[in-house]
Amino acid sequence: MTNPAQFISQVRAEAAKIVWPGRREVVTTTIMVFVMAGLFSLFFFLVDLLIRWGVTTVLTAVG
């Protein structure tokens, strides 16, 4: 077990290794997140429509 001074020293050493993204990378990844969220929402909307149509068809045929 390390003492508090060693722990703080190790935390500072690890914090010095952090590489922060640049503005361009942040903007690019943010745009990609929005695009992917839009694509996934469209996909799940279409799957929901397909399942709803299938369930409605089955229930209409049975009932």
From TrEMBL:
<protein>
    <recommendedName>
        <fullName>Protein translocase subunit SecE</fullName>
    </recommendedName>
</protein>
<keyword id="KW-0813">Transport</keyword>
<keyword id="KW-0653">Protein transport</keyword>
<dbReference type="GO" id="GO:0009306">
    <property type="term" value="P:protein secretion"/>
</dbReference>
<keyword id="KW-0811">Translocation</keyword>
<keyword id="KW-0812">Transmembrane</keyword>
<dbReference type="Pfam" id="PF00584">
    <property type="entry name" value="SecE"/>
</dbReference>
<comment type="subunit">
    <text>Component of the Sec protein translocase complex. Heterotrimer consisting of SecY, SecE and SecG subunits. The heterotrimers can form oligomers, although 1 heterotrimer is thought to be able to translocate proteins. Interacts with the ribosome. Interacts with SecDF, and other proteins may be involved. Interacts with SecA.</text>
</comment>
<dbReference type="GO" id="GO:0008320">
    <property type="term" value="F:protein transmembrane transporter activity"/>
</dbReference>
<keyword id="KW-0472">Membrane</keyword>
<dbReference type="GO" id="GO:0043952">
    <property type="term" value="P:protein transport by the Sec complex"/>
</dbReference>
<dbReference type="InterPro" id="IPR038379">
    <property type="entry name" value="SecE_sf"/>
</dbReference>
<comment type="function">
    <text>Essential subunit of the Sec protein translocation channel SecYEG. Clamps together the 2 halves of SecY. May contact the channel plug during translocation.</text>
</comment>
<dbReference type="GO" id="GO:0065002">
    <property type="term" value="P:intracellular protein transmembrane transport"/>
</dbReference>
<feature type="transmembrane region" description="Helical">
    <location>
        <begin position="31"/>
        <end position="51"/>
    </location>
</feature>
<keyword id="KW-1133">Transmembrane helix</keyword>
<keyword id="KW-1003">Cell membrane</keyword>
<dbReference type="GO" id="GO:0005886">
    <property type="term" value="C:plasma membrane"/>
</dbReference>
<dbReference type="GO" id="GO:0006605">
    <property type="term" value="P:protein targeting"/>
</dbReference>
<dbReference type="InterPro" id="IPR001901">
    <property type="entry name" value="Translocase_SecE/Sec61-g"/>
</dbReference>
<comment type="similarity">
    <text>Belongs to the SecE/SEC61-gamma family.</text>
</comment>
<dbReference type="InterPro" id="IPR005807">
    <property type="entry name" value="SecE_bac"/>
</dbReference>
